[in-house]
Amino acid sequence: MQFHTSEMNEISPKEQQVSLSGRDTDTLEFEAFEAFEARTETVELADGCIGQRHGGDGASAPSATDPWRTAPSPPEEMELFVPGRLCLLGEHSDWSGPLRKVNPDIAPGLTIVCGINYGLQARVHRLTESVLRVRSTTATEVLEVTLPLDDEEELARIAREGSFFSYAAGVAYIISTQFNVGGLSVDNYETTMPLRKGLSSSAAFCVLIARSFNIMYELNMTPRGEMDIAFQGERLTPSQCGKMDQ
Question: Which CATH architecture has domain 77-235?
C-alpha cells in the first residue's frame, strides 16, 4: 500500500504580501491554490496506506514502522476502558458453583461485587492480516504477542500454557470458532490496577479482547454476551474462575 502526503513549505514574508487592488476573489483563490500546489511534496511510504495531508500545519503522516499508531485504511480506531472488580462477599461461592452439577444438595452461593475505577486502557483497530496483535503495558514491563487467528490448534495450545497471553489466546479461540472476523490490534497502553491482587485483572483482559472484537467487527453481542465469551476463553486456560469475575 502507499501513503500520499502533501505538505506546504514555509512561505516567505515577501510572498505573503499580496496586493488586493484591482483583483477579484476568484483570481486570488486560484493564485493561492497554484501557490499551494507548487509547494506540494509527494512521499511514498512502505505501509501502503493511501491518504493526503494539506496545509503545512506540522502534523506528521502515520509512521510505517509503528503498527501501534498506524491504523489500516479505513482508519477505524477506538479507545476502550475495562475496569477491574472488587468482591465483597462470595469469592469461594463463585468458583465452587460448578460443583453443584455433581452434588445438587449444595446450595447456590451468593456474591456481592462492584466495579472499580482502575482497569485497562486500550487503543484498538482492525488489521488486514488474520492475526491478533496484543501489547500490554504494566507497571514493570511491556509485553507483546502476535496470535494466528487462522490456527485454532495453536490458539488452544497457547491458552493451555497458562502464560501471560493465554487469556488473549483463549478468547481469540472462542471468537474465531464462533464468528467470522478479521485481524485486530489491541494496544493496552495503560494498566492502572495491580495484577494478581484479587481485582480480576485476567478477567478484565478477557473482556477487553472480547469487547474489541465485538465493537470493531460489529458482532452485536450484548455486554452479557461479551462476558460469556470472556468466561469461555478464560476457562480454556488453567484458570478455574467462575462467571463473577467477568
Answer: 2-Layer Sandwich (3.30)
